[in-house]
Amino acid sequence: MSDNYKDIRINCAVNTHDTVSNLIKSNIDAKIIDIPSGHGAFVLRLKDLGFNNITAIDIENILQIKHDKFLKGDMTKPLPIKDNSTDTLVCIDGIEHIDEQVMFIKEANRILKKNGELIISTPNISALRSRWRWFMSGHHNKCKAPLDENNPTPLHHIGMISFPELRYLLHTNGFTIKEVATNRIKPISWIFAIFIPFTFIYTFFSYKKSGKKGNTSKINSEIKHIMFSKSILFGETLIIRALKN
Description:
- The protein is of the alpha/beta class and 245 residues long.
- The protein has a single domain (5-189, 231-244), classed as 3-Layer(aba) Sandwich (Rossmann fold).
- Helices cover 33% and strands 19% of the residues.
- The chain has eight helices and seven strands; from the N terminus they run αβαβββαβααβαααβ.
- The protein has a seven-stranded mixed beta sheet, with helices on both faces.
- Strand 1, helix 2 (41-48) and strand 2 form a beta-alpha-beta unit.
- The chain is globular.
């Protein structure tokens, strides 16, 4: 890893970059887009791993590295990339900052090649710890207090999204989820394991009832299986790898 990597500001939780880079299955010549690219820490990581065709996109150029492939782009608007031209699109802790999430996923589908991969990370509000925080305060983890409405900024978490919601968004817009991971499990998160039996019973009967009513038993079963994985129950960050159909 580059000696300069540690000097670049990283706007995501610990180990997120490690996990995301390990999920990338493209070869080193693949065209990869990193959006939002921020200060360029993940771009530099990809370079150190040998990838040589990386485009950084963000609403403004704040890169702290030397990189000649930067484009101005807004995740809530059409991206400045040609159709079916990209192998991998990486979005690290970006989707929770926008209100046009459907637009972004549709754009990801447009620019990715067939079987292209989309890797998304976002705060894991499906974790038991986050659900408890919501129950107690009405706020999820990573969004612990009211946002400053007097000073709106793209840095605000205005679109926190759960695993079932993100799956729906992806599966109804031309993607299929292939892997679900997390960056880390904090020791304190294991305390909330005491809620698993109650959560499982409620979820089981709720999903069973809705599955029969809506003929979605298979879908509900798949979602329930993932919702009770360690990554979802206890993980700090939700990380998903999906392929374009």
